[in-house]
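User: Now give one protein:

AI:
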Amino acid sequence: MALMSEADKRRIAEAIAAAERETSGEIVAIVAAESSSYLYAPFLWAAVAALLVPWPLIHFTWWAVQWIYLAQLAVFLGLLAALLPRRVRFSLVPGSVKRSRAHRRAVEQFLAQNLHTTAGRTGVLIFVSVAERYAEILADAGIEAKVPKADWQGIVDQLTRHIGEGRPADGYVSAIKAVGAHLARHFPPGSAAPNELPDHLIVLQ
């Protein structure tokens, strides 16, 4: 995906490394092209429309059942072809469903990246799903207990504002610095603070 250039990725990796030098916590940054394909939506809408086709034809025409069936099939296939393109398909899905899918993928990535296994339970995930226009910060129990939810949401709001302005890398760097400041305040670097997780931006297609 073209959301980030290689230079942007390097900036983000450097920001993570710099933030983690000031804390024993861990930061992982992920950007996903989408959190679901939503392929079911075109099939659902086309099927509903096709199911409605026979009723007016049965009541107001003398068409044979074979022609009614062919009309029903034509409506289904025509609508399916019209609704399958990615942009149209995504517009069919309610915002609440897209947010739910994006949140679920964020949680999946929190576990997949082993953020729940860090020493001190201080892992923080900065997650963005582009197609859903969704951003979230997930923090493990150790740091979650020390930072108000409003502070995390403030960082997310700033991140989404930068992305909306076409400056996603600036948004990530700013978010990483803010998360790092919270981690440094509550979990300063110890004598043994291994870098347990990757410092680069993880891009999911």
Remarks:
- The radius of gyration is 23 Å.
- The chain has a mean pLDDT of 92.
